[in-house]
Amino acid sequence: MSSAAMDDEADEICASCGVPACDDIKLKNCNACKLVKYCGVECQKNHRSQHKRACKRRAAELRDELLFKQPESTHLGDCPICFIPLPPDPDKFMMMACCCKVICLGCAYADLLRQLEGKLGITCAFCRQPRATSEQETDRNYMKRIEAGDPVAMRQMGAKRELDGDYSAAFEYWTKAAKLGDAEAHNQLSIMYQEGNGVGKDEGKETYHMEKAAIAGHPGARYNLAMQEGRNGSDDRAVKHLIISANLGHDMSIEMLKESYTDGDVSKEDYAAALRAYQAAIDATKSPQRGAALDAQSKGLVRWVLLRTAVVEQLELGAKDTSNTVSKSTGLVMR
């Protein structure tokens, strides 16, 4: 062992008994605050009463550092075909039920036109599998993806079960997806705990899942947190959440910041910076293909093409407003 390493170990002692770290004694950090180290579980228990207050305070600080860190992108990431960031607006992307890939409307529309013009069979724009011809086949595709451990498929199946009124099954699927890191599943669970559908109302668990979704880049969950903080009188924290979600291109957040600026709750500099970041996020999601799809959509052509080819299933999840919170949505689903 080098002399430098020995010096580092000598500086580390158990916060309870004072024994220094050495080759035979490995100290472990307090899991919550990382401020102190212990030689064993017994010492950690003995020191708990002295350390509890400082630990709780530092753990909250660490949580806030993570919570208020600006995500690089939304939880949706990039379209796997064009590799351009997906927009937060669920009307501008689609979920392919065969492979559970989320693609932008531009790529989906361009591929449909290619298939129609070439008189080709209708296949998935990503995996090229033939479309399902029935609801049962769509469900089988979901189950295959679920067996493969796909959290997106679990989330979608949870949404379908909720539509059927089977909240227990929805909760089970969303819980499994959330454990695999799916931000939308966390968002759905927060709504369940807020509304008490299938589970008992629990504000603590509601906040936990909202925070997990927000940390993963879910702008809607971040907006919900801002509304919650506002109701609790924590205006500074609410503004921080709104700025982060506005920076991700979230329409409702920038509108709320505008109102807050008008009311004098947000500085001119902060609002201007958020407005620039919001516009940059929106611009980053644009492309000629997406522009063409939106133009066709405004003329009603997208809906006509999709219905004409019978390849899209709209999952009507409804607009569940949870006290000025964002409604949940999963976008279109292509069989």
Which oligomerization state do the chains in this entry correspond to? single chain
Count of alpha and pi helical runs: 14
Radius of gyration: 24 Å
Label the overall shape. globular
| Helix-strand sequence | HEEHEEHHHHHHHHHHHHEE
Q: Stretches where pLDDT falls below 50 for ≥5 residues?
A: 1-10, 307-335
**Beginning-to-end CA distance, first to last residue:** 61 Å
Q: How much beta, percentage-wise? A: 5-15%
Largest pleated sheet: 4 strands, mixed
Mean pLDDT: 84
Strand order in the largest sheet = 4-3-6-5
Give structural notes.
A hairpin with a 5-residue loop joins β3 and β4 (102-104). The chain has helices at residues 3-10, 41-67, 105-117, 135-147, 151-163, 167-179, 183-195, 203-215, 219-231, 235-247, 251-262, 268-284, 288-298, 301-309, and strands spanning 28-29, 37-38, 93-96, 102-104, 312-314, 332-334. Residues 1-10 and 307-335 have low confidence and may be disordered. α4 crosses α5 and α5 (151-163) packs antiparallel against α6. It has 335 residues and is mainly alpha-helical. The strands form two sheets. It has a four-stranded mixed β-sheet with strand order 4-3-6-5. The chain has a two-stranded antiparallel ribbon with strand order 1-2. 38% of the residues are buried.
Salient structural properties:
4-stranded mixed β-sheet; 56% helix; 6 strands; globular; mainly alpha; disordered C terminus; 335 residues; two-stranded antiparallel ribbon; disordered N terminus
Sequence-ordered SSE layout with sheet pairings:
Layout: H1 3-10, E1 28-29, E2 37-38, H2 41-67, E3 93-96, E4 102-104, H3 105-117, H4 135-147, H5 151-163, H6 167-179, H7 183-195, H8 203-215, H9 219-231, H10 235-247, H11 251-262, H12 268-284, H13 288-298, H14 301-309, E5 312-314, E6 332-334
Parallel strand pairs: 3-6
Antiparallel strand pairs: 1-2, 3-4, 5-6
Helix pairs in contact: 3-13, 4-5, 5-6, 6-7, 7-8, 8-9, 9-10, 10-11, 10-12, 11-12
